[in-house]
């Protein structure tokens, strides 16, 4: 019998907190043993707990941690294709391959996520408007399904299972290995252009007119601004820097970046620390410290892509009650009006988001993949009580009416009745799920809550 530990488990938002039986297999064979021993019990894979809500939670059921499934298996220097076990973190890939002149094709705002988790959420990055999401760059993966069989999936081999697994929140099986195509780079630095916008219209206009010229584009947005300043932002667009763009002192060390000492938040802040006044003060300072326009600012990739990773356990800032990340996406034809209404609701109700990010998405495949052409707004909101959930329910109605959807990888509260409208390929996904896992061996608190699997 494979051993497990019953323990409290939560996502990065620290809400909710549940009790689960946690397994820590040390290899693919051990994963198969767990599956065999608990064939009729619900299981869900978990990487490093960076999904914000309940995607990798399984109350009173089994959680299979991938932390020990973390070996590199192969790298083809000619093609840039890396094959690794699903528990390898993006951090390890960066540490090993940036010095060799390779970078991730897509990365979220943290490098502390696993390859398996990146595939399960079909993560997106600042370059989605040009390069789509993670799954586009996956050559193939090996999937352990409910029957105990390991199936090789690619865009041409078992393609239906490939697209059901990419963005499928771990519900088709357990990813054992991933072959990912890295991108070549000339330096470890990014050349960034900054623009400070006065309102949402200027922000969207600049994104529409200029994003295609940049590999990466993201807006910090002041979600508490109102009136004529509604939607004011700082637009940060970048490209991988060439050697000749670097200052002379960096040209001798093209792939080296300054080492940052580990800093951590040692305890949970008081629940009132993140409030409308503190967030308003932060937003004012962040907005005004940036000049109206500045081009060609050289920064290392770690500072550009992962500013929050420099502070370990930063989620404790939101207090013991935790926080929600609310992330909708709206199609192009409704983006402006829906974003205005969203920001107005947040400002009117003084819903404080310490981190608010706006990005433009491009086209997307995948049955349950979150991105779609349009604009996405990501908000980190402290859990304050029932009133907050009522406000977010109101925003959900706006999302559905606008033809948008909510990111399941960040969610902890969306109701099941909204899923068919948000994810129009849901029925097709459910058919594949039923074919490969008719007894719902793989399920989670998220899947039962939103109706992806039966309660």
Description:
The chain has 455 residues and is an alpha+beta fold. It folds into 2 domains: 72-185, Uridine Diphospho-n-acetylenolpyruvylglucosamine Reductase, domain 3 (2-Layer Sandwich), CATH 3.30.465; 189-255 and 269-413, Alpha-Beta Plaits. It contains 13 helices and 22 strands. The radius of gyration is 21 Å and the shape is globular.
Question: How do the helices and strands line up, and which of them pair or pack?
Answer:
Layout: E1 5-10, E2 17-23, H1 28-37, E3 43-46, E4 62-65, E5 72-76, E6 81-85, H2 90-97, E7 102-103, H3 115-120, H4 128-131, E8 138-144, E9 150-153, H5 159-165, E10 174-181, E11 183-184, E12 189-196, H6 200-210, E13 216-221, E14 233-240, E15 263-264, H7 276-289, E16 293-300, H8 301-305, E17 311-312, E18 323-326, E19 328-330, H9 332-348, E20 356-361, E21 374-382, H10 386-401, E22 405-406, H11 419-422, H12 426-436, H13 445-450
Parallel strand pairs: 2-4, 3-4, 15-17
Antiparallel strand pairs: 1-2, 5-6, 6-10, 7-11, 8-9, 8-10, 12-14, 12-16, 13-14, 13-20, 18-21, 19-21, 19-22, 20-21
